[in-house]
Amino acid sequence: MYIAQAWREERLSVLADAVRQIQFCALVVRTQAGLDATHIPMLLNETSDGSFVLGGHVARANDLWRQAQRRPDAVAIFQGPQAYVHPGWFPTKREHGKAVPTWNYIAVHVHGPLEVVDDEDWTRAHLEALSARNESHRAQPWALRDAPPEFISAKLKGIVGVRLAVRRFEGNWKMMQPQPPENRLGTIEGLSASERPSDREVAEVMRGLEERR
To answer: Which one, out of 112, 122, 152, 195, has a CA that is 20 to 30 A from the CA of 83?
Structure first.
């Protein structure tokens, strides 16, 4: 992934937190037929030695898990908030007209070898963790134990676990960092007034960056 120096995010804690917040990724591997992308949620865990592992699951009918048996190199692409930036929000446009649209976004690429985990106990624990991650804030959180055991057992037989041992992270926080302050603040104002939730998310990210300058 191309990352201009002004946009590069290298803090491990920030990258790991973004992956945990986004959860959903495009998992890309090279197969004999060419590149293949599978869209799945993956959970990031830190091991006792400080390394990181991504865990996920796919349908048994998905050939990805068979490809994972040869431990191919893979990249999990996590796309954070993104938004189109209207040049009319730039005060400098009114001064000299030298302005064009751009796109603000966050992207995290996680690289490493992919392996299959065809183990029902591992997959059950993974699903319990995934459910807890997304249900714990609810007044009546759902858990695997809420469904009949035979129903869950049948579902588990239809999926296979996959695991990516993280070798490196790449983080791209493209948020108009090189632009003059007035253009950044004008963009924050414009995005904050948008009806699109993703636009307002980007405005919040930009606002946080401004506060840390």
So the answer is: 112
Domain boundaries, the chain: 5-82+103-178
SS3 readout for the chain:
CCCCHHHEECCHHHHHHHHHHHCEEEEEEEECCEEEEEEEECEEEECCCCCEEEEEEEECCCCHHHHHCCCCEEEEEEEEEEEEECHHHCHHHHHHCCCCCEEEEEEEEEEEEEEEECCHHHHHHHHHHHHHHHHCCCCCCCCHHHCCHHHHHHHHHCEEEEEEECCEEEEEEECCCCCCHHHHHHHHHHHHCCCCHHHHHHHHHHHHHHHCC
CATH class as words, domain 5-82+103-178? mainly beta
Instruction: Look at residue 38 in the predicted model and tell me its pLDDT.
Output: 97
104 or 34, higher pLDDT: 104
